[in-house]
Amino acid sequence: MQFQVNRRVFLRAVTAALVAGTTFPLLQACGGRAESPTPTAASGTEASPEPTATAVTTPMTHAPPSPTGAATVTPVARGTVGGSLTVYSGRSESLIGPLMDQARSALGIDVRVRYGDTAELAAAILEEGGRSPADLFFAQDAGALGALAREGRFIELDTEILERVEPRFRSPQGLWVGISGRARTVVYNTDQLTESDIPASILDFPGDERWRAKLGWAPTNGSFQAFVTALRVLRGGDAARSWLIGLKELGTRAYENNTAIVRATIAGEILAGFVNHYYLVREESQAGRDLPAANYFYRNGDPGALINVAGVGILASGRNQEPAKALVDYLLAPEAQQFFAERTFEYPLIDGVPASPKLLPLEEIQTPNIDLSDLDDLQGTLALLQEVGLL
């Protein structure tokens, strides 16, 4: 099976990166270092970025009390569940620590969290096998969840839990479920462009000279790599290669991350860039005003309409599956979903919890027909990006 080969390469790559102490594109691809959204302080100042993950070497710790300015999440009235639970989290402590604190209080569970890079934690789970102390894996993206699901590492979730989330944002086999959503968008400068200037398909950007040296992307960023993976799945490797080469030939500017792309767009350094939706919303929240930029949401099933998710799976080898189920229930309750809507500007995935008014409603976005589990072939994407000279 192809994934068996990819897994061995994956594990060797993770180990080599850890030994060398270097940033490795594969680790970004799985989403841990891939610039996930961070909560903003109540004062409007920028919160600290996601900490550098040290998943394989950092011991499990209890999450600290909520930082100053963190959103208050009203505990879900579930009654005391009790017991203990070990979570491997590719979402950072600065991001979900407050939620874990609330879960402890609401459920009476001793929740122990091992924070780290999503890719490294997935590799650790595979290496540990049945000895893994993990009961639940909270991944930054669906590709990592799909990889572990294909290896038989997750149990099937309860129907009641699964049905809270649309089928497009959960495993078709019921092995994992999305917790929050991140839409791909084209951020554009509103002083120089209108919505009608954006091509009808994201695939139409290459070859159009008006975009020469006026577009931005982040080839080393995990969310971009996940999009390229989706493009390969949806349209094939040749189409993905042509899109990348065409944009490269237009002189598309490479940036370190989504935030840099958004700021360059606001400044007029570029006309537009390929990002996740929440970075512009966060910049405007911090500024306390509208900025000269807007997100263009593809909504017609185009590859550009991809919405990836952060999600969870319960380990088949876990010794505390009932507390794990209770935590998943908590994360998909309105109060916890509201945290993602208001603090990280991601899309909540259950009915009845609205997203930021700055965003296109989720129900208006027709996403491409793709099983998000299939975003697990990150090695193929990295090979393609290296082939075309972007890594």
| Major sheet characteristics | 10 strands, mixed
CATH superfamily of the largest domain: Periplasmic binding protein-like II
Proportion in β-strands: 5-15%
The number of helical segments is 13
User: Which structural class best describes the helix and strand composition?
Assistant: alpha/beta
Structure write-up:
The structure is a single chain. This protein is an alpha/beta fold and 391 residues long. The protein has 2 domains: 2-181 and 308-355, 3-Layer(aba) Sandwich (D-Maltodextrin-Binding Protein, domain 2); 184-306 and 380-387, Periplasmic binding protein-like II (D-Maltodextrin-Binding Protein, domain 2, 3-Layer(aba) Sandwich), CATH 3.40.190.10. The chain has 13 helices and 10 strands. It has helices at residues 2-20, 25-29, 93-107, 118-128, 142-150, 159-162, 222-235, 237-249, 258-266, 278-287, 321-331, 334-344, 378-387, and strands spanning 84-89, 110-115, 136-139, 177-189, 215-217, 253-254, 272-276, 293-296, 307-314, 347-348. Strands 1, 2, 3, 4, 5, 6, 7, 8, 9 and 10 form a 10-stranded mixed beta sheet that branches. The model is unreliable at 1-5 and 7-77 (pLDDT under 50).
Q: What key phrases describe this protein's structure?
A:
single chain, 391 residues, alpha/beta, D-Maltodextrin-Binding Protein, domain 2, 10-stranded mixed beta sheet, 10 strands, 14% strand
